[in-house]
Specification:
The chain is mainly alpha-helical. The chain has one domain. The protein contains ten helices and no strands. The chain is globular. The mean pLDDT is 85. This is ABC-2 family transporter. Keywords: Membrane, Transmembrane, Transmembrane helix. It comes from Catellatospora coxensis.
Length: 259
Amino acid sequence: MTVTAPARATATVATPPHSPVPLWRLTAVELRKMADTRSGASLLAVVGLLAAAVVTVLSLSSDAPEFDFGGLLGPTVLPAAVLLPVLGVLSVTSEWSQRTTLTTYALVPRRMRVAAAKVLAALALAVLAYAACLAATAAALPFAGDPDPWHLPASALGKAGLFLVVNVLLGVAFGMLLLNSALAIVLYFVLPIAWSILGEMVAALARPAEWLDLSVTSGLLLEPVMTGRDWARLGASVAVWIVLPMVLGLVRVARREIK
């Protein structure tokens, strides 16, 4: 005769539901990572020094009395618009180049959430850089001979900020599409220049280049007046150079194998 022991009752403990890391915290982490590395900190320092140098040279030049706030702001923003996109590239590609993505996605397994945090961090960096450019420009205004140097329409302030944002997002889009630091940085500088040269040399490309040359259409943001046609040209070039690479890059990030 076999006697079966009664089964022990096992108590189940309810575990609290796991809450995802807030997007703002991911964005703050990505923003901090841009300046934590030696290359990131050096690049930010170079941008700051160049902006200060531009303001100083313009303030001490013989043309200084002709400058107002808008005349100083455009040249001050240019160094940031050229170099900050490199940080946008590195913010996306550095983890894939250094193979730290496994750690990142182990902590936050939602790839699109991490990608969104990187884009938001790049936007935050552009806003902070623009604020620094505004401060540097304001510091140089006492040297301007204009009787009303502070006069600048709100639309001009917005367009100058948008100019910086567009260039930073271009770097993020290239990084998202290529996921390789060296290749993305090289192509970020080479492709727009090559397209501009082809548009000027090849007659058949002159008309498309008028709408798809981002260096020209984004430069219109620093002009005093933009027409509806200028905004349409900017939208077309942004769609080709930023939106399309960004979408393709997000698809690649979502499907790429992590090693």
